[in-house]
Amino acid sequence: MFQKRPVNPVRSYPIQPDSAIPYAKAGLQQGYEAISAPLISLAEQARPDLIHIALDGTHGAQFQPVLHSMIEALEQQGYSTLVLDTSRFIKTSEVLRQHFQQNITDNRAFGYFTEGTIEDYFRPNAKQEAISTLHDARTAAHSSRTLCVINYGPGAYWLGDGNFDIAYFLDISREHQQIEYKQQLVNFGFDKNEDDTEKYKIALFVEWPIFETYRKQILNAVHYYIDMNQPEAPVMTTTCTLRQMISSIAQAPMRVKPFFAPGVWGGQYLKKIADLPADWVNCAWSFEPIAPENSIIMEYEGKQIEVPFLLIMHYEHASILGERLVKLFGDYFPIRFDYLDTMDGSNLSCQVHPKQEYIRNQFNEFMAQQESYYIMENKGSSEVYLGLTESCTKEGFYTAVQTAQETGIPMEITDYVNSYPAKKGDLFLIPTGTVHASGKDNLVLEISSTTWWFTFKIYDYLRQGLDGKPRPINIDHAFENIDFFKKTNWVEEHLIPSPTLLRSQNGNEEYLLGQHADLLFYVHRVHLHDTWEDHTNAEMVMYNLVEGEQVRIISCADESVQVELKYAESYILPAHFGAYRIVNLGNGPCKLIKAGVSQTWDVSLIEA
Predict the structure, then answer these.
(1) Helix ranges (DSSP H) in 296-432
(2) Is 115 exposed, middle or buried (0-12, 13-18, 19+ CB in 10 A)?
(3) CA nearest neighbour of 484 among 363, 398, 385
């Protein structure tokens, strides 16, 4: 069965406690009592007049249960408490919307990535106001008891200027936050949102760039990290322990927690293999990995903690990517695997992805969306749409899609866009500027660069989204980026490659499926009967089992380090992993997609 909560074991024992962290215990602690325990120890043993506590974290994490348990535990021991909520010091919703308007924009789908900081959320004199509030409270207290001041809420550590006796960070995954957004949560500092689309847009272009950068900046100074993805059972560890656990898992194959989502064109195949809820209308996407979107589960001494994969990359990008890739991408994970499921679904929109210069200038995006479609499963006469027909002209295509949108009368997309039969095992290359779409009845494994939002829809069959609203069409953006020379003959010569045998080992084979100068990644396929030996060669490698039952990946240096990979699952092999072998555990032959950064790719995106 497909594993939806893969666990990455911490293999380095024992984890060492950090003497610099107040009353720390090594390992993972579970429950609210464990969160309050260091506070009580600090108060009892240090016995200061004032204890200043930071309870910082990600927007959407449930602060209140943690706060209430702290207050109850402290007051039971005879300590008085004062609470400063960061929301008291932030700008109004109207001011924030105006401040970030250039990032939010009036476009329904797209914004401009902010380069702002946590300070942008707070009033100009917020720190001074907080200090003044604290001073007044201490003066008015007139108590011989120790006063415990708790700054809580996103930005708490910044608000207190880092002057804390003990500091916590409450974290949740993007997946968990988006579940909250689909319920009642609104964007941080805002009092309302137009709809779920705007919530996601503000999160993508404003919240996440600011708060995920802020988390990286302060985490080393924070004492405790708390996983609040399951608020009924929070898991706490010291940031020292967290770094040690991350260091351990980054030396071995890693698998992120998959992230599933329905969509208007979605199919039924992923629902079955991943045992998704029966009441889901479909499953359109599975992300595994799209680094910013996924989290990773680590296990130590029988307990588990879930952390964003971005934190793994922040601390261990050198071990994971390798020296060459760090120079090209910094701590950004450059390749993504994800599924597009249209089995018993419908066609994706006819679309194009913007070029690097355009996406930087228009949206301040780091990386252009370069793609490929690997047909993992299909049924019937399924198709992939790729490139333009020889007779297509810019003026004719533009007029046709505009007329369809204005009149509501469907157009025939194949008058302008090529349609090719899709067969299991085919690969279609999709550099930026290439018009494309998957047709219905395909399970596509996308091997792409790690960005996912900038899809310019040219034509979407006049459909509404799952929210009942018209799907955004981006004709003007699209036609600024379409390569009109990519017509039938060119596409068939350059974007539909035939497999090329690279090497063989005792009847096992590795093929080059696709590589192109405009794509930063390569796609290989390993045909495995029994055992395959390979080496990371000091660079990250990714695998997905596209045919067969199960394989085992084993370190040649230490055979106790091994993972098992089932059908449709993906693993990242870090650069540091070195020599390995893959053993077929199934009853018949199998095939694995192998991907990494092309050796010919030398464009540094961090210097662009």
Answers:
(1) 309-321, 323-329, 356-363, 394-407
(2) exposed
(3) 398
Q: In 3D, which of 95, 96, 169, 161 has the Cα closest to residue 130?
A: 161
Report the alpha-carbon angle 10-15-16, nearest 5: 165
Burial class (CB in 10 A: 0-12, 13-18, 19+), 156: buried
Contact 553, 573 (CB under 8 A): yes
Q: What is the DSSP string of 455-516?
A: -EEEE-TT-B-TTSSBPP--HHHHHTT--TT-BHHHHHHHTSPPPEEEEEETTEEEEEEE--
* The pLDDT of residue 196: 86
As to burial, measured by CB atoms within 10 angstroms (0-12 exposed, 13-18 middle, 19+ buried), residue 86 is buried
Q: Which amino acid is at 343?
A: M
Specify the pLDDT at position 607.
64
pLDDT value of residue 14: 66
The DSSP result for 97-148, as a single string, is HHHTHHHH-S-SS--------GGGGB-TTHHHHHHHHHHHHHHHH--SSPEE
Strands 7-9 and 295-300: parallel
CA distances from 125 to 120, 133, 149, 150 (A): 12, 12, 20, 19
Alpha carbon distance 546, 593 (integer Å): 7
Residues 6+ apart with CB under 8 A from 477: 110, 354, 362, 456
In the chain (608 residues long), the average pLDDT of successive 10-residue segments reads: 91 70 79 92 77 95 96 91 94 97 93 96 94 72 70 96 94 94 93 90 96 96 96 94 94 96 94 93 93 94 96 97 96 96 96 95 93 96 97 97 94 97 98 98 96 92 83 91 98 97 97 95 98 98 98 97 96 98 96 97 81
Q: What is the pLDDT of residue 144?
A: 54
Phi-psi category of 311—alpha, beta or left, where left has phi over 0 and alpha has psi -120 to 50? alpha
Alpha-carbon span 370 to 367, nearest angstrom: 9
Q: How many CB atoms lie within 10 A of CB 233?
A: 11
Q: Look at residues 427, 450, 606, 424 and name the one whose alpha carbon lies nearest to residue 542.
A: 450
**Measured between alpha carbons, how far apart are the two ends of the chain, in Å?**
43
Q: What is the 3-state secondary structure (H, E, C) of 542-583?
A: EEEEEECCEEEEEECCCCCCEEEEECCCEEEECHHHCEEEEE
Rg (CA), the chain: 26
Q: Which helix or strand (DSSP H or E) is residue 159 part of?
A: helix 156-159
Task: Give the whole-angstrom CA distance, residue 388 versus residue 395.
Answer: 13
Task: Determine the pLDDT at residue 13.
Answer: 67
For residue 42, what pLDDT is reported?
85
| Length of the chain measured in residues | 608
Instruction: Please say whether the beta carbons of 241 and 15 come within 8 A.
Output: yes
Give the list of residues 6+ apart from residue 435 with CB closer than 8 angstroms, or none. 350, 351, 352, 385, 386, 387, 388, 417, 458, 482, 486
Burial 33-49 (b: 16+ CB within 10 A, else e): ebbbbbbbebbeeeeee
